[in-house]
Amino acid sequence: MDSRILHTLLGEGRISNAALAERVGLSASACLRRVQELERRGVIRGYRAVLDRAALGVGFTAYIAVGLASHTAESQRAFERSIVDSPEVRECHNVTGAYEYLLRVETTDLAAYKVFHTDVLGMLPQVRTISTHVVMESVKDDRA
Questions:
Q1: For the chain, where do the domains classified as CATH 1.10.10.10 start and end?
Q2: Is 76 helix (H, G, I), strand (E, B) or coil?
Q3: Is 26 in contact with 89 (CB distance < 8 Å)?
Q4: Are the beta carbons of 130 and 66 closer than 8 angstroms?
Q5: For the segment 121-135, what is each residue's pLDDT rounded down to a tens digit?
Q6: Is residue 21 exposed (0-12), middle (13-18) or buried (19+ Cβ within 10 Å)?
Q7: pLDDT confidence tier of residue 144, bands split at 50, 70 and 90
Q8: 80 closest CA partner among 69, 65, 97, 94
Q9: Per-residue pLDDT tens for 62-96?
Q10: Gap between the Cα atoms of 15 and 138, Å rounded
Q11: CATH among 3.30.70.920, 3.40.30.10, 3.30.200.20, 3.10.50.40 for 54-134
Q12: 2-40 maps to which CATH number?
C-alpha cells in the first residue's frame, strides 16, 4: 500500500488526501496516517514544485564530469564547499570511474556557461579536468 501511495505522490505531489485515499483504495484517515508515517520515517523528505526552466530564463543545461588533481578527502571537501556556493550547479554527485564528480549545471545560455566554466570551475585549484556534455533535448526527465 505504501508503494502505491508513493507512486501516486511522485506523479501528483499536490493531490488532496481524499483523492489520494480514493486512488489507492483506503479511507481518508488511514491514508493520512500512512502518509504521515512515511514523512516521519523520512521516506517522504519533502514536496517540490516542477518549474518550467525556459520560462525562468534557463536555456542551457549541461552535465559536467570533473576530475580532481588530488584524491584526498580534504581536496574533495574543498571542491564540494566551492560547488555548494555556485547557483549554476543544480546537482553535484561524487561518482566512481574516470572522474570524481558529475555536475548538472543550468545557465541562461552558452555565454553564461562559458563564464561559469572559466571563472568558477577553471579557478578551482582542485580541478584537473572538465568534460562538458551539453543537453540538446530531454526525452525523459522525472526530477521535480
A1: 2-40
A2: helix
A3: no
A4: yes
A5: 999 999 999 999 999
A6: buried
A7: low
A8: 94
A9: 999 999 999 899 999 999 999 999 999 999 999 99
A10: 26
A11: 3.30.70.920
A12: 1.10.10.10
Amino acid identity, residue 11?
Answer: G
Residue 7 one-letter amino acid = H
Site of grid cell 526552466: 53
Q: Are strands 101-107 and 127-134 parallel, antiparallel or unpaired?
A: unpaired
* Alpha-carbon gap, residue 40 to 18, rounded angstroms: 20
